[in-house]
Amino acid sequence: MSKRLIIPEKLTDEHFLARLGLISVQTRIDERSPLNHRWTSRFSINGHDYHVEGFAADFGRPRGVDTDVQIAIETLFERQGCPQDNTIVTTAYELLMLCLMTDKGDNYLRLRESLMRLWRVGFLVSRAYHHPSSPWAMYLNETLNLIQRVRFWSKGARRESPDLSTMDADGRLIIQLSDPVAQSIRAGFTQHLDTMLLSRIEQPVGRGVYRLLQAHRTSEQGGGLRVGLREWASACGIFSPDSDKIRRVLQPAHEELEANAYLEGIEFEGRGAKQVLHYHFRVEPSLDPHLVRDVRELGISEVRAQTLVKGHQQAPERVLASVEYVRAQKNVRSPGVLLADMLTHPQKYILPEGTTRGTLASAAPHPDPRVLEQQIEREQEVRQRQLLELPPVEQWRANQTTLRFMLKAYLSAPQLQHLEEACVSGRLSASQLAHDLSVATARAARADLVHTLMAELDG
């Protein structure tokens, strides 16, 4: 494709809709089931009661990959400035990339089917109002739809039915959100989902459960969420009342969310219909934003700065003292390189006892910072030359984890495969590419390098 889309680090998701569980986490729903066309979800989470009726046309209830498509649409709406007419203009290719799906024919068919399901479904959302001492309640009922209009180009044989045509990847795709959804995003009632985490979760059921967990996760709960198994099944759009079946549907999601360090663990309490799920979130200590900013100001990327600060959470004064030391030096060509080495190899530098903001001391008299910087650069150059001298296969083995981590949010699975083939064959140097990506990231220029790499892989 000629047009490239840089995938953002965070994807936008309307918060209230995510809580309602409008899209089933299941990838397949029996077309003959009445629940594929009309269903009712009742559940209570965190003391909030939810009652949703769904009405789907011939395309059936939204499910599986529709979660990715809805999130991608909402992300584009926010990125395009929340247009007043509630309409985004994009292409099928761009939408597919934001869904973190690969650029292949089958996925364009899946995208078309997904858009039709999201367009044709409607909901009736009920809110209860009652006095604690009264057995009666008043209900406010409101209809809701997700997408008002879809317009796209497709191509196919002249004599075939339009239903058999394929979405044109580069043709203009126009999607108009419903007014309530657009107003809510415009007002900022959104949650932001981790793109990198979503890209590592392979199954739609895992991404759907992650979205739902994020929507119901609150800071007051600390690191956990307790919910009845059947209540959770209703929120997830799992039709079966059988507890074992519910657990089997959720198992792949649980495994992926634990493997990707989103969940610390899952506990099932009780038996049968009264089972309770207890999700334990993995909670990382929050970083001092001012300290991260100080590190970034010396020419270090945000991700790298967070990593360096995180590695010194038990001794933040060392980070601060190192930052102040580097700031005080003159004629340092690469202050970020010097600071990163100080924090990565703290054994080279010793803080005097009782020093928090004072001068950084070395075990020996202070070397000239320019000499120290040159020494660090020489060491890096030696390591880089050693890596470049390795055979292509060895270079790939040494750098593949770094390359996949830095590029997975940008490259599709086929492109990552092409990258591996190019590196193993020697057409590209894995060591040089990893080095160039690190430099580009530190200079906030990774996007330009990725564009060049994409063109080379497609060529």
Explain what this protein looks like in three dimensions.
This protein is α+β, with helices and mostly antiparallel strands and 459 residues long. The protein has three domains: 10-281, no CATH class; 289-385, no CATH class; 390-458, no CATH class. Helices cover 46% and strands 19% of the residues. It contains 18 helices and 16 strands. It has helices at 15-20, 66-79, 92-98, 105-120, 179-186, 195-200, 204-216, 229-236, 243-259, 289-296, 302-310, 316-328, 335-344, 369-388, 392-407, 413-425, 430-442, 446-458; strands spanning 10-14, 38-45, 48-55, 87-91, 122-130, 137-145, 147-151, 154-155, 166-167, 172-177, 190-194, 224-228, 263-269, 276-281, 349-350, 361-362. A four-stranded antiparallel β-sheet has the order 2-3-5-6. A hairpin with a 2-residue loop joins strand 2 and strand 3 (48-55). Residues 354-366 have low confidence and may be disordered.
Mind sketching the topology for me?
Elements: E1 10-14, H1 15-20, E2 38-45, E3 48-55, H2 66-79, E4 87-91, H3 92-98, H4 105-120, E5 122-130, E6 137-145, E7 147-151, E8 154-155, E9 166-167, E10 172-177, H5 179-186, E11 190-194, H6 195-200, H7 204-216, E12 224-228, H8 229-236, H9 243-259, E13 263-269, E14 276-281, H10 289-296, H11 302-310, H12 316-328, H13 335-344, E15 349-350, E16 361-362, H14 369-388, H15 392-407, H16 413-425, H17 430-442, H18 446-458
Antiparallel strand pairs: 1-11, 2-3, 3-5, 4-10, 5-6, 7-10, 8-9, 12-14, 13-14, 15-16
Helix pairs in contact: 7-9, 10-11, 12-13, 13-14, 15-16, 15-17, 17-18
